[in-house]
Amino acid sequence: MESTGNSSVSGDRKASKKTVASSVAAKPNGKSPPSSTNPMNPNTVTALSSAHANQVMFFRDVSLGPREAELRFRLIHLWEARNIYTKTLIGQEMLLIEEEGTVIQGFVPAGRVGTFDLVAGSVYKLRNFFGSRNKAEFSVADHIAIISFSWNSDLSVLENPPVLIPEDRFRFHSFEEFMATCDSKGDLYDYVGHMRLVNGQTLTDHIVLDEVAIAEKRHLCVHVQTLDGPVMKLYLWDNAASEFCQKFKSYGRIPHVLLVTTVNPKHLGGTLCLTSMSSSRVFMDDDVQPSKDYFEWLSSNTGIANRIAAEVVTKPETVTLEELFSYIKQEASKVAWFECTATIDVVQGSSWYYVSCGGCNSKAVKDPTSLMCSNKKCEKSEVTGVPQYLTKISVYDKSEQAVFVILGNAGNELTGKHAAELVANYFEGAGADHCVPVPGALLDTIGQTRKFIVKESDHNLKGKTQTITVTKILPLEAPLPATSDDIPTTMGDGSAPSSGFGDAAGDRDRKAADNLESDDAKRSKSG
Asked: What residue spans carry the Basic and acidic residues bias annotation (predicted)?
């Protein structure tokens, strides 16, 4: 984090050279022009600090443990923290900033949520709090501590603050920095760049955002690019997706700049993608100073912005089945995703679905009176069983034959129907104890030639199984999105946004696939 005034570095876990206060003009190259009115100006901060150093504690002085001091800050943003499996409310998290420009995370435990009147943008005075240790994973601020509101915390609105407090603060990462921290579950940084595609559509006056479909699928996919760097996918989930739609439509024109805070870099489908979190906020062209500055750069550098770097990261390599098996046999092979075209020959007659936990998609097992989740990390005490695809199919191309296993969303893409719907249709005319035969929706796919995105897993590479997991199936006739300014074609994200590499269900399906492959390996060894 940038040093301010005479502030001690003891309160910060690390320095961030790309931290930008919203009141500072942050250029795309990370440099900010000096300003005499800048609240981050060291001379200004020093003068303000000495004015009331005896009454107010600065964030840089916050340490672990109970404190009876007074803090003055602006509430930048607040959001709910919930258990990822049970959805139980854990508490209310906040992002706070004080006059020195230092940012710290705040937290209200679940039992005290609603006790305090919290409004984003307001300035508050807080007396009595507890300094908790900052999170090791998915932290949104550099400070070592979190300000936890305790039983004796006294919060009041500061109507006319005696000092100027910045409105916001951003921590930007470049493509290279996101790549370096990919899958680390580390700090959550901010992204700014320009949009190339939205759900597979180019940015024209004819672009259509189907908010009903987006709300149903809970996310949308935006292809983004910073300066003339690589294009990558940014998945916006739930509130972030809704906020994107609202802002996009409110502009009255097509916005081009996208700034999303606290994104998580992940390898999805073998490529770097960014996904929003519950703490994420969405800004566009004129919303905040960094997006304004980027828009200014974009308007002056359209030729550079329209270039695509050679290392575009949006599509797995296309291979034949023979090449797929050849890759498995290579000693240096790693887990990877590939695209292959094959014809479905046989839908195997073994059980074509399994009953999953409705919370985490792990396999549900029966006890004498109810269903239990087999995932020990899932905290659901009562499990609602949901049928999910677990279908093995034989496929072939001109070079080889293979056995694919279809899981979850991939099954929906193959048949156009959810497994639960097919199971329910069968039980309308049969007893609950009947074994559900392979439905016609699956049998009708025999003879179809489809494009599959498949994963070569550790089980494949270690020779434990030859069955290959399918993570996505493209439509029978998948029209590629129109290209503009040499935008690379993609894999139909617009036609099936819910089943892209970035959706949570897809992640759970792939984890389920790994477990099922492990079971196959055990059976092969014992048999």
From this structure: 505-527
